[in-house]
Design a protein that fits this description.
single chain, alpha+beta, OB fold (Dihydrolipoamide Acetyltransferase, E2P), Dihydrolipoamide Transferase, Chloramphenicol Acetyltransferase, 3 domains, six-stranded mixed sheet, four-stranded antiparallel sheet, 28 strands
Length: 537
């Protein structure tokens, strides 16, 4: 079904926007999460991504044209779909005194889209709901509050820390006023769009918002600002840097970049930030830097004052949001997708020699996993039937190769994605994987960095695991499990010699990839890994 995209409200003061550039043209395919256009607001020029997939059927505002918020911006749907009725409805639509804004960049269910919202009785009261901070997030947990009821809140200040299924993120206020109500205590979880907090004038009666007489709906500008903030990654500088970054001066007049949350934590702990080396972009000090500093001190004190105790027979911890979502998604995958497994054993002798030769080059350090990723990318490009995804009403065969690399973290498993891996060299893959793995372990991956995979690799070889099976990462059709390189006797040219072998296991969704298709893929992959030089010819 065709989806109408309207000019979004990308800031709380935005009334109209200008299309600075389109990155798609009518007739182009659009993937969910792809950048559609650049939109210039009253505050900045921001990338605007698609939250639907399909074909771009209509562009309503051309480059350099300006339109009011909620003006028809584009339509995405199936090729050949009739859009006249959609455009007609917009043209003939009479203005209503109260309506639900559709410009928020969050998909709603058909049931949600029919929901009416009563306008709050006071425009200065801002109802803040649990935001959707990742594409798979269904609920969030308040890790900590940095304001108490009755305290003044400034626009841009950090209100709370929210744990999602993928990361723990700082949540800043986009309004100024008094924190009148906190809907969730620290450690509590709630569904997306549940009441989180209320900000308004001091002394305001908010009983109408709590007893149900005023229906609660997250405000458009709040949600959209959050979505824009998350699009920032290690290669993108968000133009709202003056809000997100706070700087202080040292005695040497050197600028120290520090996030608002990290600055507050440092102040609370009386930590001299000039002594801390930031691990964020451009040396920015982030929350984990302060926590690691704190933890080192606390751990030292604990070792001196706390005697070991064996009195407890067990310990329990509540499920993290990440662990909940991992459990749900993988259970759905395992019990809905008919898994079967194909195994192959490789001769890694030439691969070992190739890696050794590469790493003899100065400033070069590649892993076996980097070689495997490159080989998979090449094999997928030549076997599009495996580079596919299952949806309830269709199978998608992708013309791009995005490889997800499973990374283990404390709370579970994160899968950052190498976009267009088939166009990358082994050295580029190595550098990118290291960067993404580091961000994953520091919980600094943005949602965009974890979206869009068409194939996944899980490698446990470094732990000595010879072979294992993995659960497919939906909606992908396969996942490759990589074992350790084992030295053992093998037969070569009729003689028993010492060989180096490695086992691969390809888990396949039989609805999409049958045995012949999966076997052909492994048949194409095997010589690429066994003889990496062949990928350079």
């Amino acid at each position: 079904m065709a989806e109408l995209i309207k000019m979004p409200r990308l800031s709380d003061t935005m009334e109209e926007g200008t299309v600075a550039a389109w990155f798609k043209k009518v007739g182009d395919k659009v993937q969910e999460g792809e950048i559609l256009a650049e939109i210039e607001t009253d505050k900045a020029t921001m990338e605007f991504e698609s939250f639907y997939e399909g074909t771009l059927l209509y562009i309503g505002i051309q480059e350099n044209e300006t339109a009011k918020v909620d003006a028809p911006l584009a339509i995405i749907g199936d090729p050949g779909e009739d859009i006249d009725s959609i455009l007609g409805n917009q043209t003939n639509k009479t203005e209503k005194p109260i309506e639900v804004k559709d410009s928020e960049p969050f998909k709603k269910s058909s049931q949600d889209s029919k929901k009416t919202v009563e306008k709050p009785m006071n425009d200065n009261v801002h109802v803040i709901t649990m935001p959707r901070l990742s594409d798979t997030m269904e609920e969030g947990t308040v890790a900590s509050w940095f304001k108490k009821v009755g305290e003044e809140v400034e626009e841009g200040e950090i209100l709370a820390e929210i744990e999602t299924d993928k990361a723990t993120m700082e949540f800043e206020s986009f309004y100024s006023g008094t924190l009148l109500h906190i809907g969730l205590s620290e450690g509590d979880s709630a569904k997306v769009d549940s009441l989180l907090a209320i900000i308004g004038p001091s002394g305001m009666d908010i009983s109408q918002y709590l007893n149900g007489s005023v229906k609660i709906e997250a405000e458009d500008s709040e949600k959209e600002e959050l979505k824009i903030e998350q699009k920032a990654d290690s290669k993108t500088i968000v133009e709202k840097e003056d809000t997100l970054l706070k700087s202080v001066k040292t005695n040497k007049s050197e600028r120290i970049f520090i996030s608002p949350l990290a600055k507050k934590l440092a102040n609370d702990k009386n930590i001299d930030i000039s002594t801390i080396q930031g691990s964020g972009e451009n040396g920015r000090i982030i929350k984990s830097d302060i926590e690691n500093y704190k933890e080192a001190v606390v751990q030292t004190m604990a070792q001196k004052t706390m005697p070991p105790s064996d009195s407890q027979e067990y310990s329990e911890v509540s499920h993290s949001q990440m662990r909940k979502v991992i459990a749900k998604r993988l259970s759905e995958s395992k019990f809905s997708a008919p898994h079967y497994y194909l195994n192959v054993e490789l001769d890694m002798s030439e691969t070992i020699a190739f890696r050794k030769q590469c790493n003899s080059i100065p400033n070069t350090k590649i892993s076996f996993n980097d070689i495997i990723i490159k080989a998979c990318a090449v094999a997928l490009r030549n076997n599009p039937s495996v580079n596919s995804q299952w949806f309830d009403d269709r199978i998608r065969y992708n013309n791009f190769v995005n490889i997800g690399v499973a990374v283990g973290v404390d709370d579970g498993l994160i899968v950052p994605v190498l976009k267009n891996a088939d166009k990358m060299s082994v050295a580029e893959i190595s550098t990118t994987v290291k960067e993404l793995a580091g961000l994953a372990r520091d919980k600094k991956l943005t949602p965009e960095m974890m979206q869009g995979s068409t194939f996944t690799i899980s490698n446990l070889g470094m732990f000595g695991i010879e072979s294992f099976t993995s659960i497919i990462n939906p909606p992908n059709s396969v996942i490759l499990s990589v074992g350790a390189i084992i030295q053992k006797p093998v037969v070569k040219d009729g003689e028993i010699v010492v060989g180096n072998t490695m086992k691969l296991t390809l888990a396949c969704d039989h609805r999409v990839v049958d045995g012949l298709t999966g076997s052909k893929f492994l048949q194409a992959l095997k010589p690429l890994i066994e003889n990496p030089l062949s990928m350079l010819i």
